[in-house]
């Protein structure tokens, strides 16, 4: 169950299924619709998604999800998807909602050494948003490549590389299920999974 949390000082967490008449801090209708659309989204079966503690001070209403991309016994990537909502709007967001995301995946060592891989990572995000025909504004973020090599008594460990994509954007609607699906596609792309064939509907694990 997705639950939302009031981040006002002293505001309690609450279930979105609570009776709005008896729950003084129940979310506005727009946020409830956003949560319902997230519940309805069906991510790829390789993605295991769970609710996580939402940020408390960034917006009056928020929800957070974490996800892992797992194939067999191998974890290929992970990430976080956060929805912030301020009914009064936020100047920096250019809207009342803000989606904040993080995606991380292992890279081939040779690819990790390519200085253009960060641009490629950002292009993956933009392509995923475009593929779901999402109308977004104020897109921003960073792409970081991390290379690790061990020395001394740890020199037997193989070198490794990772790509981290941090991005946020303002959706034009409170129906956010497609935004979650686009982020799921980004996770799978970064993890090296091929796209689903056209017409195939994923049955995501809940």
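Q: What amino acid sequence fits the structure above?
A:
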């Amino acid at each position: 169950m997705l639950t939302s949390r009031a981040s006002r000082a002293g505001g309690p967490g609450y279930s979105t299924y609570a009776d709005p008449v008896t729950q003084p801090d129940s979310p506005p209708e727009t946020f409830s619709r956003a949560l319902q659309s997230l519940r309805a989204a069906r991510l790829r079966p390789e993605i295991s998604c769970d609710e996580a503690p939402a940020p408390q001070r960034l917006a009056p209403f928020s929800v957070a999800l974490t996800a892992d991309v797992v194939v067999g016994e191998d974890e290929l990537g992970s990430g976080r998807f956060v929805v912030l909502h301020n009914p009064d709007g936020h100047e920096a967001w250019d809207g009342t909602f803000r989606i904040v995301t993080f995606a991380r995946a292992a890279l081939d060592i040779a690819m990790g050494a390519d200085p253009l891989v960060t641009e490629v990572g950002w292009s993956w995000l933009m392509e995923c948003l475009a593929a779901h025909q999402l109308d977004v504004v104020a897109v921003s973020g960073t792409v970081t490549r991390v290379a690790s090599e061990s020395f001394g008594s740890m020199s037997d460990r193989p070198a490794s590389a990772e790509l981290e994509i941090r991005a946020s954007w303002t959706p034009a609607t409170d129906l956010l299920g497609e935004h979650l699906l686009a982020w799921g596609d980004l996770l799978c792309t970064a993890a090296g999974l091929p796209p689903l064939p056209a017409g195939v509907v994923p049955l995501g694990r809940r």
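Q: And what stands out in the fold?
A: Helices lie at 29-40, 109-112, 117-131, 177-190.
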